[in-house]
């Protein structure tokens, strides 16, 4: 069955439901692909046409008001010619993929001298049968596949599916150095929408480390144009990352978001773990007017290990929302999660973490902790760690803390000759460093620590 995706058909079906979504859909559905990829796009259009942008009446979005997003008119980002700044390139990384406004920039990427069994590039590096098996597959929580975790932003990303950052690691292949996936947003006089897409496949017994990084382009690196100042760039990043960790494979995933203060960032990370697999995600989110990360883990075999570490740093009137869901459907699974927030000024942090442990998941060991540091009396956090357990032989725990800098800690440092300002910097830096120090690239760790100190010292 063919689906009409012309702008007129989209507008007629959506206009009375959600005019903003109609505009986005008209923008991102212009490009066409061939064969099975176009069928995936068509199916996504059909789903979006019956959807609306979520609002605070939806339980999963009740603390995240997207009204400021809907006030902006977005256009698809144009292609810019960039020279890669030195501080964007990581010296410890051997291979790099660069996307500018969601478009693959081959001239800035480095995919030379790949070891045997490793494919890094756009979608065309994969055989069609492999790509069809993994790309844009429905993501199920329930074992009977009755509950599909779809959302309008993921479907919208699929509608605009064009360039895809692909990392494929063959069976028994160990990749020694991290692979850098760099997504640069460059806004001009008008606001833009970019829709980055990542597909990572780790075949059985393989190991790989990834740096997935989102940054804002800097004006002087553009050829012939000077956009608005970096901190005022208005754009919308709607990203989706799919990671498949096959049997006994190991993926170390480091996700860095450094957005402009006026940017919107909504993302989905969907991870499928086969038996005996190990997945680690270290996430650092800094900046953005509104940001939201949906992190979903599906266990498809026994004895998996899942480690999630997160840090959010926001100030001014920014809002950052992290929603995670871990579905442990098989026995002997181990899951550890620590998410931290540093919230200043009038900013608003949100954390909602869910762990599902149904009856078959006996002998599961799961722990979840959310720690929040408020730097201002007007800073706000809404936190909700959740456990849903029906198995009867498990070890599970969850908790949350909200605190400010302790006066006695500051006094102790002052008694050692450190002034109050530097004492506060040291305490905030120590709070953030627990997460940042887990990132396996020293130059990136150093940059992030400096950024946190600069932002929290204002």
TrEMBL record:
<dbReference type="Pfam" id="PF19295">
    <property type="entry name" value="SufBD_N"/>
</dbReference>
<dbReference type="Pfam" id="PF01458">
    <property type="entry name" value="SUFBD_core"/>
</dbReference>
<feature type="domain" description="SUF system FeS cluster assembly SufBD core">
    <location>
        <begin position="192"/>
        <end position="431"/>
    </location>
</feature>
<dbReference type="InterPro" id="IPR011542">
    <property type="entry name" value="SUF_FeS_clus_asmbl_SufD"/>
</dbReference>
<comment type="similarity">
    <text>Belongs to the iron-sulfur cluster assembly SufBD family.</text>
</comment>
<dbReference type="InterPro" id="IPR055346">
    <property type="entry name" value="Fe-S_cluster_assembly_SufBD"/>
</dbReference>
<protein>
    <submittedName>
        <fullName>Fe-S cluster assembly protein SufD</fullName>
    </submittedName>
</protein>
<dbReference type="InterPro" id="IPR045595">
    <property type="entry name" value="SufBD_N"/>
</dbReference>
<dbReference type="InterPro" id="IPR037284">
    <property type="entry name" value="SUF_FeS_clus_asmbl_SufBD_sf"/>
</dbReference>
<feature type="domain" description="SUF system FeS cluster assembly SufBD N-terminal">
    <location>
        <begin position="31"/>
        <end position="180"/>
    </location>
</feature>
<dbReference type="InterPro" id="IPR000825">
    <property type="entry name" value="SUF_FeS_clus_asmbl_SufBD_core"/>
</dbReference>
């Amino acid at each position: 069955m063919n689906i009409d995706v012309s702008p007129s058909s989209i507008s007629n079906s959506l206009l009375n439901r959600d005019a903003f979504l109609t505009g986005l859909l008209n923008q991102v559905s212009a490009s066409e692909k061939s064969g099975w990829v176009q069928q995936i796009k068509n199916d996504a259009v059909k789903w979006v046409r019956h959807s609306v942008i979520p609002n605070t009446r939806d339980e999963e979005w009740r603390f995240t008001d997207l009204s400021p997003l809907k006030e902006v008119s977005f256009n698809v980002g144009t292609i810019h010619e960039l020279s890669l700044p030195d501080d964007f390139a990581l010296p410890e990384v051997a291979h790099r993929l660069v996307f500018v406004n969601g478009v693959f920039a081959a001239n800035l990427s480095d995919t030379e001298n790949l070891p045997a069994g490793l494919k890094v590039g756009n979608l065309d590096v994969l055989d069609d049968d492999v790509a069809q098996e993994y790309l844009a597959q429905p993501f199920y929580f329930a074992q009977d596949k009755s509950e599909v975790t779809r959302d309008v932003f993921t479907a919208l990303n699929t509608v605009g599916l064009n360039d895809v950052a692909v990392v494929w690691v063959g069976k028994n292949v160990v990749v020694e150095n991290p692979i850098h996936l760099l997504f640069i947003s460059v806004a001009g006089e008008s606001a833009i929408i970019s829709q980055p897409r990542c597909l990572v496949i780790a075949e059985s017994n393989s190991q790989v480390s990834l740096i997935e990084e989102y940054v804002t382009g800097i004006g002087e690196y553009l050829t012939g144009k000077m956009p608005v100042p970096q901190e005022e760039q208005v754009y919308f990043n709607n990203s989706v990352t799919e990671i498949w960790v096959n049997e006994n494979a190991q993926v170390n995933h480091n996700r860095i978001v450094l957005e402009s203060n006026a940017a919107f960032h909504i993302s989905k990370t969907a991870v499928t773990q086969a038996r005996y697999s190990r997945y680690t995600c270290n996430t650092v989110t800094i900046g953005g007017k509104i940001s939201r990360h949906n992190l979903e883990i599906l266990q498809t075999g026994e004895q998996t290990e899942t480690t999630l570490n997160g840090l959010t740093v926001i100030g001014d009137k920014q809002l950052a929302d992290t929603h995670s869901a871990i579905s442990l459907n098989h026995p002997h699974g181990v899951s550890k999660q620590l998410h931290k927030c540093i919230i200043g000024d009038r900013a608003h942090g949100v954390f909602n973490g869910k762990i599902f442990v149904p009856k078959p998941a006996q002998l599961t060991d799961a722990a979840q902790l959310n720690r929040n540091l408020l730097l201002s009396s007007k800073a706000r956090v809404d936190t909700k760690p959740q456990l849903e357990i029906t198995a009867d032989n498990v070890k599970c725990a969850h908790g949350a803390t909200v605190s400010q800098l302790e006066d006695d800690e500051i006094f102790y440092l002052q008694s050692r000759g450190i002034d109050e300002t530097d004492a506060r910097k040291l305490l905030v830096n120590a709070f953030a460093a627990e997460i940042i120090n887990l990132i396996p690239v020293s130059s990136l760790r150093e940059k992030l620590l400096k950024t946190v100190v600069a932002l929290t010292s204002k």
